[in-house]
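Quick one: structure for this chain?
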Amino acid sequence: LNSQWKYSDHADVEVVKNRLETVEEALEKYDFDGIGLNYYVPDTIFSAEVSSPSKAPKNASALTEFVVKVRNLLDGIGKNSKKDLALVAKVNPDINQNIKVGLEIDKWLDQGLVDMVIPSEPHPNDTTQSSLLDTNPMLDELINKAKERGAWVYGSIPGVLYDDREYSTTI
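Got it. Here's what it folds into:
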């Protein structure tokens, strides 16, 4: 697709077609209970839309339209298989940070497009953010918004944790 990081421009009709075909194929081939969209993208690296974060807010509606199409696809396949298929979004814990990079997670929740959100750890390629496990993350706004809309919130713990106790004894 059109980015070295394999993130895609959801304003591109061919990209959307390809992604929807991939989702449909995965759901038909395997007995999945849903699909997860991994859109945790720190603004310091790139946006969810293109390799330039400044363009992302202009294309945010295109990504939301894509999420609507995925939701409709899941609902259609689920109806045929008599199964409720979940749509999960892995995003930044900060709603405003998501919006800054073109992820309208607030709209996705308001419109009932996603069934679950996973506030995510820092991206492994982002050296500007620590992988320190934050025991008091600023999650209230995302959690409250999700709960108001009936969506689940799952915590996420990174595979590799930075624990300052290993490098700088605090006791």
